[in-house]
From TrEMBL:
Biological function: Catalyzes the conversion of 4-hydroxy-tetrahydrodipicolinate (HTPA) to tetrahydrodipicolinate.
Gene: dapB
Species per Swiss-Prot/TrEMBL record: Alkalibacter saccharofermentans DSM 14828
Sites where the protein binds NAD(+): 7-12, 84-86, 108-111
Name this protein carries in UniProt: 4-hydroxy-tetrahydrodipicolinate reductase
GO molecular function: 4-hydroxy-tetrahydrodipicolinate reductase; NAD binding; NADP binding; oxidoreductase activity, acting on CH or CH2 groups, NAD or NADP as acceptor
GO cellular component: cytosol
């Protein structure tokens, strides 16, 4: 299986490259990035129209600013796409849905298996913890550009989908008029050091608190998920897929 890796020179791209190099069922035959890499074991292109290799699937773990280029290329060449980049707009998400009518598209804001189990847990908790105040706290490294994380938004949306009454999202708080409102869900972003990713969902009730937490200790959990997603999406029919479908959750 032949992979085009978008964002190959970034931290996640290098981690994915290392994982694929250990496998015998796939290889990265080309990369796409804004800069060349002299020590890359495969050709790195700065323009997608220059790609000559046969590609079975694309893994995009780059920057949301490259979204249109990747999607245009996948659509034109009819290549299955794993879109793992975060920070996409609603317009971008809508375009992926439209794209999935013509090619297989795998889309998730978090490639970790554990995080996707967490999504199921918070959905169940919302049904059983009526009246509890809910806060989501996410922590990432100091180089992450988007906030809140795509995973934090996934968690918030999963809670809302299970809620009898929808929550209003509040992104951080400040000032002297920041008292919590009814049906408010707080989402808070922490940035520092080399934190790979940590998400805590806090349920605060009268005299008792419950926390559901997932911690990624390295980027390998996301890279592994992206590689498995590429193997999965390459043999699917046109449509929009995610981790829940792949894992049968």
């Amino acid at each position: 299986m032949k992979i085009l890796l978008s964002g190959c020179n970034g931290g996640m791209g290098k981690t994915i490259s290392s994982l694929v190099a250990e496998r015998d069922d796939m290889e990265i035959v080309a990369g796409f990035d804004s800069s060349q890499s002299p020590d890359s074991p495969f050709t790195v292109y700065t323009e997608l129209e220059d790609v000559q290799e046969k590609i079975d699937a694309i893994i995009d773990f780059s920057h949301f600013s490259a979204f249109d280029k990747i999607v245009d290329f996948a659509e034109d060449k009819k290549i299955p796409l794993v879109m793992a980049t975060t920070g996409l707009s609603q317009t971008d998400e809508d375009r992926l849905k439209e794209l999935s009518k013509s090619i297989p598209v795998f889309r998730t804001a978090n490639m970790s298996i554990g995080v996707n189990v967490l999504l199921g847990l918070v959905s169940q908790a919302e049904k059983m913890l009526q009246g509890f105040d809910i806060e989501i706290i996410e922590k990432h490294h100091n180089k992450k550009v988007d906030a809140p994380s795509g995973t934090a938004l996934m968690l918030a949306n999963a809670i809302n989908e299970s809620a009898a009454e929808k929550f209003t999202f509040t992104y951080g708080r400040e000032g002297t008029s920041a008292k919590r409102q009814d049906k408010e869900l707080g989402i808070h972003a922490v940035r520092g050091g080399t934190i790979a990713g940590e998400h805590t969902v806090l349920y605060a009730g009268d005299d008792e608190n419950i926390e559901i937490k997932h911690t990624a200790t390295s980027k390998k959990v996301f890279a592994k998920g992206a590689v498995e997603a590429a193997r999965y999406i390459a043999v699917q029919k046109n449509g929009l897929y995610d981790m829940k479908k792949m894992l049968g959750l």
